[in-house]
Amino acid sequence: MADIRRLSEETINRIAAGEVVERPASAVKELVENAIDARARQINVSLGNGGKTLILVEDDGHGMDASALALAIERHATSKLPEGDGGNRMFQIASLGFRGEALPSIGAVAHLSLTSRAANSDSAHQVKVDGGKVSDVAPAAGGIGTRVEVRDLFFATPARLKFLKSDRAETTAVSDILKRLAMAHPAIGFSLTSDGRKTFAYPPETGEEGQLKRLGAILGRDFADNAVPVMAEREGVRLYGFAGLPTFNHATAQKQYLVVNGRPVRDKLLNGAVRGAYQDFLAGNRHPALALFIDVPPDALDVNVHPAKTEVRFKDAGLIRSMIVGGLRAALAEAGHRASTTVAGQTMAAFRPGYANHANDAGRQGNFAAQNNRAQYFQAPIDTQNPNQDPNQNPGAPGMAEAAAAWLSTPQAAASAMSPDASLAGLPLGLARAQLHETYILAQTHDGFVIVDQHAAHERLVYERMKTQIAEAVIKRQILLVPEIAELEADAAGLLLTRAGELADLGFVIEDFGPAQAGRKAVMLREVPAMLYGADLKAMLADMAEEMSELGAGLALKEKLEDIAGTLACHTSVRAGRRLSIEEMNALLRDMEATPNSGQCNHGRPTYVELKLADIERLFGRR
Q: Any idea where the domains of the chain sit in the sequence?
C-alpha cells in the first residue's frame, strides 16, 4: 500500500479551483457575486477572447483595506460568517458567497491582480497571485471599490484549456450568467464588454416598474408586453415576479429564470412547479417565459449543496411548490381572456405577400401561422371531429356530454347574449357578426375585430367549470360494483392510506386490504371520481403515491384530476362544424370575457385572434 501523505497547498488550491472554476463564466459568477455582496451600485465586466485571456470585474462597493486584501486571497477566509460562530450560522446565509474559495482558487490557475480601496481609506492597495504564488500587498492607484483582473485563465493547468469552447460560446455563457444576476438585482447597474465592444449596459432600476423594465431589457419587449405580475406570501415565504401569458410560449425552457434570496438557481423542484402551474394551458412541447423571485428565511434554505451554489435545498419543499403553482395560476386567472400581443402580429405577417413560401422557416422562429401547420399541435380539436356525426351530439363521460351540449341553450347563456345592435363599448370581444366555415366566429369590436375558434373557446369554458368543481370538492363519486384491488409497494400503499381522508374529499375512497407481504401491500378502491370512468386506476394510484413521496403534499391528486378533466373538456365541448345562431355566438363571447384563462385552450392554442383597425389599414396601405 502506498504511503499516505499530505497534498501541497498549491495542489489543494488547484483541486478547489476545479470545483469552483469550470470555465470563464464560473470565475465571472464568483467575482460578480462578491461585488454584489460588497453592496456595489455598478458592476462592469470586460472579457478578452471569451474570458480566456482576460476577465476584468470592476465595482464601486465598500472595498477593502490592506489587511483585508491580504486575507481575501487566503482559502476559507470570509467576512460573511461571524467570528467564533462555530458553524451555527452556516445554514443561515444571507449573502451570495461565504466560503472564501473563489479568489484563491482563481489565483491558483491564473494571473490574478486584486486592487481595492475602502470607503474610509485615502489610498488603494494591490495584491497579486500568479499560479498560487502570492505577492506582498503594495500601494496602488484606484477609486473606492474593487478591481479584479484575471489573465490567462488555466495557464497553470493547461489540460483544462482543451475543454473550453470557442470564444463566442464562452462569451455567451458569461453573458447568460451576468444577465441572470442582473435580473436578480435590478437596483444594480451591469455592463459587459467583449474584446472592446459593448455587449450590453443595464442602468440601475427601482420599484416594480423598474424590475419589469430590467426584465424587458433582458427578455425582450414582447415579454414586458405579455407578462402578468405574480405575488404570493405565506409562512414567511414571499413569491413575486412576472409570468408570460400561456400564448406567449417557446420551444425551450431557456427563458425561465428562477431566483432564490437573490441567487439565480436551476432547481428541479422549481421547474417542476412551473410545469405543474402551466400544465392545463400549454402542450407538452411548449414552455412559458417567466422570471420568479422567492424570498425565504435563511434558516429554511440550504445553499451549500453544490460547489458552484447553483442548486438549493428547501426545508419545506411542498410549501414552495404549492406557492409557485397557486401564485402562477392566480396570476394567469387575473389575466382573464387576455391573449399575447404576438398572436396578432404573427397573424398579420401571414397576410403579407410571399409568406406562404417561407412558412416552414417562420415556424422555426415561433410563427403562429406556421405552427398552425403542425397537425399534432394545432389540429387536434378538428381531427376529433367526425364528418358523419350529428354536430349536436358530443361523446364523453356519462352526464358530461349532455351538460356541455345543452350549455348554449341555458337561461344563463341566453341572458348573457346581447342583441347584435347593442353598443360595442365595454365589450372586449365585441359582438358576433358571422360564423365562418361553421368553425370560427367573426366579431366586431370598437376598434377592430376578433376571430374566435368556437371549439377551443368552449373547451376552455367547460374545463374551467370542471376545475371549479374539483377545487370546491364537489366531485361526484361513483361506487364500484366490484371493489378494485391495487397492489403497490408497501411504502407507497402506506402513504396513500395515511392520506385517505384527503383522497376521499377528492372522490377516492380507499381501504387497507390485508398485511404487507414481500414488500408489497394491497389497497381496496371502493369509490372513484365519476369523471375517471374507464381510467387505469391502479397506475394512477401508483403515480400519485410516488409524487406524494417526492413532494410531501396532496397536490398530486388534484393535478391528475385536472389533467383528465382537460381531456374530457376537449371531447364534451361545442364542435367545429356546428352551426351557431347569433345569440349563441354572443353568449359564448360574453362567457369568455367572464372566464379566467379563456384566451387559450387547454393545449396552449389561442382561442381568438384580435386585429386592430390600424393594423388592417396598414395592410391595405391606408397608413
A: 9-202, 207-334, 385-623
Q: Which residue, among 2, 125, 114, 101, has the nearest Cα to 58 in the 3D structure?
A: 114
Q: Burial letters for 477-491: b for 16+ Cβ neighbours within 10 Å, e otherwise?
A: eeeeeeeeebebbee
pLDDT digits (tens, 9 = 90+) for 480-539: 888 888 888 888 888 888 888 877 876 788 899 888 888 888 999 888 877 665 667 777
- Residue 152 and residue 354: Cα distance in Å, rounded? 51
Whether pTM > 0.85 for this model: the answer is: no
CATH of 9-202, one of 1.20.1740.10, 3.40.50.720, 3.30.565.10, 2.130.10.10: 3.30.565.10
10 Å Cβ neighbour count for 551?
Answer: 19
Scanning the structure block, which residue is given the C-alpha cell 365541448? 573
H or E stretch including 545? helix 537-551
Q: Average the pLDDT over 450-459 and give the result.
A: 87
What CATH number does the domain located at 385-623 have?
A: 3.30.1540.20
* Cβ contact 417:411 at 8 Å: no
Which sign does the torsion angle of CA 277, 279, 280, 282 carry? positive
Q: What is the number of H-type helices and E-type strands within the chain?
A: 24, 25
- The second-level CATH assignment, the architecture, of 207-334 is 2-Layer Sandwich (3.30)
Most confident listed range (4-13, 401-410, 439-448, 500-509): 439-448
Question: Which is more confident, 266 or 36?
Answer: 36
* Contact call for residues 113 and 126 (beta carbons, < 8 A): yes
